[in-house]
Prior knowledge:
Structural class: alpha/beta
Radius of gyration: 23 Å
Largest sheet: 7 strands, mixed
Helix content: 25-40%
Shape: globular
Number of helices: 11
Number of strands: 20
Bound molecules: S-adenosyl-L-homocysteine
Amino acid sequence: MQQSTNSSITLKPGREKALNRRHPWIFSMAIQTVNGKPELGATVDILDSKGKWLACGAYSPESQIRVRIWSFDQETIINTNFFIERIKNAAMVRHELISQQELTGYRLVAAESDYLPGITIDHYDNTLVCQLLSAGAEFNRPQIIQALETLYPKHNIYDRSDVEVRKKEGLEPVKGLIKGDEPSELTVVKENGVNILVDIVNGHKTGFYFDQRDNRRIAGEFCKDKTVLNCFSYTGTFGIYALKNGAKHFTNVDLSQGALDIAKQNIEANDLDLSKVDFVQADVFKLLRRYRDEGKTFDVIILDPPKFADNKAQLNGACRGYKDINMVAMQLLNPGGTLLTYSCSGLMPADLFQKIVADAALDAKRDAQIVARLSQASDHPIASTFPEGFYLKGLALTVR
Ligand code: SAH
């Protein structure tokens, strides 16, 4: 039997089931022996308990996810060409979307969901922003960058791997220019004829949330002649779509003054009427209650909070958080108003989220009908072998 790497991992008997379904993770519990001394992130062969070759993947000795699979094909060599092919495929999957919605900003590579575990690449006009989150991604950094240079020779490349989760993989957070020019203070990207300003260097994640693109458009359609409260607004891009659709008044709320400053510039960058928009720097949990005490009401409320649960232990607290904001938001809605509510916590199942929102309606003493089920934009695809890739769930409800 030919092996493609120097080291290998033998699984415990029966622990090959997930790999047979092409799920890309091997947990530490499934491993019988590590044969050889693989470096952090090096490619290892995966063998079943009888020694049959199953896959090759990146070894991550410090993570519970001990191996992330690169390939189930024994002929595959993990080199620059491998990354060129996978990135090309990712670009192809997005081709129609990019041209239909005239996108200059989109997620080009969505990690496991594009068969490139730990690798996120976002496209911001003429700059590619990388997040290398796994040991295997870091180990192959030169090949990944070379692949990007080959496919996008004119693009700048910037690294936003400055995230704490890297520590789980035994890596330090890093950030900075890889190739070309430093990003300007704000980069403009376009979607659906809308201009969006992005702070690549200091913004959240790689700078922006492309996953909500469809939901921004859908939300806009609910906003004609309406008063709208946008909670957890970040840079206020829901508001651009809402105002373009004729919203009467729009309030952005976020803890981050920096994000709200960009939200204001986003209104200006789209030639929209600034007098129709408020920017409130506040904690949403407290502000919703204050508005309730003051008897303030809205026609449409958007709730797009950050991820409340990073691990299973945090899920109960997350449920309470979601229920709380959804309940108070419903109490603030005028009869017949619309609640657009989202959860980006991958650990929160869609049916549980719906139940939480239902409980919130009971506690708010309001009738709520689901009129649309919402999800992540299609530049965040869900590989059929990796259901975990479905993380962004949303509901549109009419509330009486
Ligand atoms: N809706 C945004 C993305 C939201 S990201 C968009 O479409 O782009 C989550 C945002 O919530 C961040 O901007 C963060 O600053 C903000 N945030 C986190 N906790 C908050 C709180 N308790 N109150 C208000 N804003 C909060």
